[in-house]
Design a protein that fits this description.
about 0% helix; globular
Length: about 250
Amino acid sequence: MAAGFQVFAADGQTLQVDGEYINFSLRKSGTISSSMIKANGLGGYHCCIDITGFNNPTVAYIASGSGNRCSMEIIRPEGTYLGGYVGGRSYVRFTFDDSSASVTYYIFDQWTAPRGNSGVEVFNYSGQVVFHSDWYTMQVRGVINVPANRPRIVNLSSGGDPETFTVGSIVAGTAIMPTFCRLYTVAPYQDIPVTYKSGFWTSGNTLYTRYIAAGEYGNSQGWNYNDDWAMPILMVDISVCPVPYG
C-alpha cells in the first residue's frame, strides 16, 4: 500500500495489521467430545461442524495424545450422506479412528467480529472496520513441515499398520493448522477400497502423524492412490482464544 496504516511484528517483516483488508480472527471454537462423534457408516468415525455462511474459514486444532489423533478437512457434500448432514452446506469434518476421542478446534475467518466501544479500530477506504483490538486475531508463530513420502503406509494389504512419524517440536501455546488433507486409498487384489487420511496428535510439544482409516467404500472398483506431497503445518497462537466461542 502507498499510504495508510500498517503494524509489523518485532521482526520488521511480519505484517500484523493492514488498513486494506480484514484480518483473520476467531469466529468459532469448541471441544469435540465422544458424544459428538458418529460412526460414518463406512468403518470410521467423524464429527462435522457446520460453517455454512463463513467467508474464508481456516481451522486449527489440538489433539493431545495418540487416542485423540484425527484428520481435518473442510467439505461441502452433495446429496445426503455423512449420517444425515445436508448437501450444499459447508462443514469442518474431523475424522477419527477412535470413537472416544476429544479435540479442541479454533475456526478463524475474515469477518467483522463483535467489538466493544473502546480500543483501537482500523478502517479501510470504504469505512469498513478491518481491525479491532478486541478481536482474537490469527497469529502464526511458525511453520513445521511433514516431508513428502512420510509417514508411510506399511503392509496394509497384509494386515500391517501405518507408520507413526515424528514431525518435530511445536511452539508452546499453539494449535496446528494443516494446509491440506492427505489421502491414501488402497484396495488390495481389487477388493473393497479403504481410504486413509493424515491424522495428527501431540504428546507434550512433539507433533506426530500417521494415516488413519476413514472408511471402506463398497461397490467401487479398487484402486491405489497416494496424495503425498510435502505438507506445511502452521502453528497458530491460541493462548488468548476463548473456548467455547461463537
